[in-house]
Fold each of these.
Amino acid sequence: MTPVHLAILLISLAGFAALALATERHAEHLLGRLPAPQWRLLARAIGWALLAIALALGIGAMGRGVGIT
């Protein structure tokens, strides 16, 4: 596994974790309480931004065909 692959994996994992914490069900299960709506909105924005960064990194490193996949 190259450093680019590892970076894409870790950034994607962080993005999906942020999106999971943005949902009421998962946030309450993982944190033991329901976070404030502003916090969940911020987590959702950060999650999507991290996934977009991972996508851009994948496309830049491996081309459109493989990078999107």
Note: The CA atoms of residues 57 and 63 lie 10 Å apart.
Amino acid sequence: RRSKKLQKTIVKDPVKAKSFNMPNDEKELRYKLLKMDPFDFERHIMSFFQNSGLPTIVTKKSNDYGIDGFARHANGYIIVQCKRWASDNPVGRPEIQKWKGVILDEEIKNAIWKTYFVTTSYFTKDAIENAALNNKIILVNMDTIIEWHLKGFSVNQTS
């Protein structure tokens, strides 16, 4: 059963995921990911879910309740937050706490199966520890994004 807030976010001006042409060289791939337009980065990340066979939507650029994309899985929704940040700008605990506020919202929490917090940066120790307190949160840093490109992506991966 979908909540009204989740339904509203999904259907309001949805955008298709898009896989962008990316280099095979790891160094060039890192550079290109860091230079992507942030919205294109969101579309690109959501294309991994789409290409794995899941119905996928990228939310519009603003008023998205902090959710950048949705994928519909048999077990429930997968929601995604993307941060295309400089490699020396880590995601800290405050960002994870904000994300928890989104995913624990009474109107949507029961519809969510998993959440992915994706960054071209890395996560601080405090962010990792805080995220570990919720078994629905999967943290994805630049190294994992590179693995997705070079080795493939599966929604059943846990990191």
Note: The two ends are 27 Å apart (CA to CA).
Amino acid sequence: VPTMSIVFGDTTRFSVHDDVTNVGRADVAQNWQPELDVISLGGGDPNFGVSRHQAVIRRDGAAFSVIDVGSTNGTYVNGHLLEYNKASDLHDGDTLAFGAFSGTIKIG
């Protein structure tokens, strides 16, 4: 089964292990802890504009996709702003950005 990871900056890597991975930033007051908390990966700068509920990454067999779930500053694949609640396929080498916080997709 292929695996997918997102490489942020030069070395920080997040590996997708589940069929559904929530992306955003944690909120203790709301008891919300997404699987991919961008704050822990260096996305805590307010200029990055990452929402608590930013996006969902889905794995379906060997295929991966991302869905923006209504974020404030948008989710982008290769620089293209995604429509809310519309899946976009992810491929090896794609750039995936949550607001201004971006990484590169590695599938293999």
Note: The longest strand covers residues 101-107.
